[in-house]
Amino acid sequence: MTVKPDDVKFKIDKFKPLEFGTSGLRDTVTAMTDMECYINTKGFIMFLEERGGIGSLNKDIALGGDLRSSTPRIISSVSLAIESSGYRTLFCGRVPTPTLAYYAIGRCIPGIMVTGSHIPDDRNGIKFTKESGEVLKTDEEDILRNVGYARTAEYEKPLQESLFDKNGMFKEEYNLPEAECETEAINIYVQRYSNVFKDKPLSHKKIVLYQHSAVGRDIVQKIFEGLGADVVPIERSDKFIAVDTEKVSIDTTSLLQKASREHKPFAIITTDGDSDRPLLADENGSFLPGDKLGALACIFLNPDFVSIPISANDAVVSSLDKSGIKVIQTRIGSPYIIDAMDHELKRNPNTKVASWECNGGFLLGSDWSINDSTLKSLPTRDAVLPLICVLLLAANNNQTVSELVTSSLPNRYTHADVIDEKTRGCEVYTAVMGKTIIKMLSPENADISQVDFTKEGIKANGVDCSTGTVHNLTWIKEKFCNYFTNERGFTDIVSINFIDGIRIAFSNNDVAHLRPSGNAPEFRIYATADTQEAANRIVGKAADIIPDIIRDFIMKESG
Q1: What DSSP string describes 91-120?
Q2: pLDDT tier at 12 (50, 70, 90 boundaries)?
Q3: 270-322: pLDDT as tens digits
C-alpha cells in the first residue's frame, strides 16, 4: 500500500495554537486537543529549564484542576508531558487555583492548573506558575518560543510513531495520575487561615455558601466553619455552572436575593469555577462589586501600597489615596498588578503590599502579621482572604455588611457586561478584530496613556502635543463623540485613558471603559457612575455602540 505524504506527518496548519489571555492559556475545548495541551506543557517546562526555574535535584511539578467536564482529559495530557520531560507529577486533584499555587510556592516548585476559571464549560485553559509565583507578561514571549520548539519536535515525528492521531488526540487512553497530594495541599491552604484567624471570630454568624460547581466549595465551607460561622450550603451542582464574579448574571442575582429571604444570613458568599475569585452579597442579597470588596479588605489589612487595574471604581482609588495608601493603576490582569507589587518590593522590601482585581481576586505580596501570627504571602488571586477580611471588619464594628459598605465607601457605582459574536450586529466579531479596533482608536504616539480635553486645550500626560498629535487626538475624540452621543444620554468627553483598552470620562462624571478580550471574541464594557441606574444604562447602550464601531471598522477595512 502506498503511504500518502499527508498520512506521514501532521498538517502544521491544521491545529490552532493556544494563546495567552489576561492570565493563562484559554480556548475552546475542541481547540485544546491532547497534542496542543501536551506541546504547551512541554514548552513551559523547556522555558523553566532555560531560566533555571526548575532544579536538577527537585524534579517535581504540582498539578491540579477544576470541575469542568474537559478537565480530566487535559490533566492527562499535561501529566504525560511532565513525565515524558523527565519530571514527576505531584497531582493535587481537584483543588482551587490558590490552593495549588500556595502548595507549589511553599515547596519552591512550579505548578500547572487546568481551569477555564469563570468561562463556560465549552472552554478551558491552562495556568502556569513558576516556583516564585505566577507567570508574568514578560515571560510569555519566551514560553511561546519554547512551545514553538516543542511543536516542531512533535510535528516532525512520523504519525505512526506519535502518541497522537491525525486529529491531535491520544491514540490510547491515559488514566489520571493518583491524587496523592490532595489532602496535604488542602490542609496547608486551610491552615493558612485557621492559624491566623483564631478563637472562632465569626461565631453566631450565619453565612450562606452558594456551592454550584466551584472546585473549592467544600474547602471554603471548611474554612468558614473553622472560623465559627454557621455555614448553610445551597445549590450544589454536578453540572458545571459558569459563575462570573465580575459580570453577575440575572439568574445569580435572583438566587442571591432568594437565599437572603429564605435564610436571613449575615452574608452570602461564593466563588467562580476555580475558586480564585470571590463573590460577596450582603444580608439583603445585594452583590458587592469586586473592586469595593478589595477596598474593604484593604481597610482591614491596612497596607502601605496597592496595585489595582485601571478598570477599578475611581472612587475606590480616591478613597485609598486619602487614606495615605500608595496606589498604582495598571493594565487589567493579575500579571500586571503582580509586576507592580514586585517593583515596589524591590524599592522597599519591608513595604506591606497587596493588590486585587475587579473580579474580587485578592493578592498578598508580603507576609502579614495578624493576631501575633504570620499570614504568608500568596501573590496569586485568592477568593478566601477578602471574604474573611470584610466579614470580620463588619463583625468587629458590630455592623451588618450593608452598613459597613455604606459607612466605609463612597457612593459610586459600577456595572460590567460582555458583547460577543452572539450579539446582534456583532456576528463577525473576532478577538483579532477587537485588538485592531483599539489600536485604530488609540493615539499614534504610544507614549500617550491619557488625554484630558480642557478649556485651555489638549493635555496628554506630559507629552508635548505637536500639531499632528493634536489633530490625531481631536480625531479620536470626535470618533467617540459619534458613538457616545447626546441622544444616547452621554455628555461631553473630558478625558480618555489608553492604559488598557479605552476608558472614556464624561463631564457628568460617568465613565465608559471598552476593552476587548485577548483571546476570545468578546468585548467587555465597564461603567462607573453616581447611581447604579446610570451605570446600568451605560452598559446597556453598549449593545448599540459596539455594533456601530464594528460596522465602521468593517467598512474602513473593505475600502
Answers
A1: EEEE--HHHHHHHHHHHT--EEEE--TTS-
A2: low
A3: 999 999 999 999 999 999 999 999 999 999 999 999 999 999 988 888 888 88
Last-in-domain residue among 364, 380, 410: 410
Give the structural domain span for 312. 195-410
Element spanning 422, H or E? none
Q: Going by C-beta distance under 8 Å and a sequence separation of 6 or more, which residues neighbour residue 505? A: 493, 494, 495, 496, 497, 511
CB of 357 closer than 8 Å to CB of 334: yes
User: What's the whole-number average pLDDT of the chain?
Assistant: 92
Cβ atoms within 10 Å of 512's Cβ, excluding its own = 25
Q: Are residues 488 and 534 in the same domain?
A: yes
Q: What is the CATH number of the domain that holds 362?
A: 3.40.120.10
Residues 85 and 215 both lie in one domain: no
Summarize pLDDT for 223-279 with one digit per residue, the tens.
999 999 999 999 999 999 999 998 889 999 999 999 999 999 999 999 999 999 999
Q: Are residues 262 and 344 in the same domain?
A: yes
Indicate whether 241 and 336 sit together in one domain.
yes
- pLDDT value of residue 543: 85
Local confidence band at 56 (pLDDT 50, 70, 90 cut-offs): low
**Same domain as 281, residue 248:** yes
Between CA 314 and CA 254 the distance in angstroms is 28
| Residues 257 and 373 grouped into a single domain | yes
Question: Domain end: 410, 442, 461, which one?
Answer: 410
Backbone dihedral region for residue 271 (phi beyond 0: left; psi -120 to 50: alpha; all else: beta): beta
Which runs of consecutive H residues, i.e. helices, occur in 428-531? 431-440, 467-483
| CA dist., res. 233 & res. 259, Å (int) | 10
**Residues 10 and 141 both lie in one domain:** yes
Task: Give the CATH number for residue 509.
Answer: 3.30.310.50
From 23, 77, 117, 319, the catalytic residue: 117
Residue type, 89: T
**Amino acid (one-letter) located at 427:** E
Domain shared by 210 and 345, yes or no:
yes
Instruction: Report d(CA 163, CA 144) in Å as an integer.
Output: 22
d(CA 474, CA 253): 41
Q: Are 64 and 34 in contact (CB under 8 A)?
A: no
Whether 249 is catalytic: no
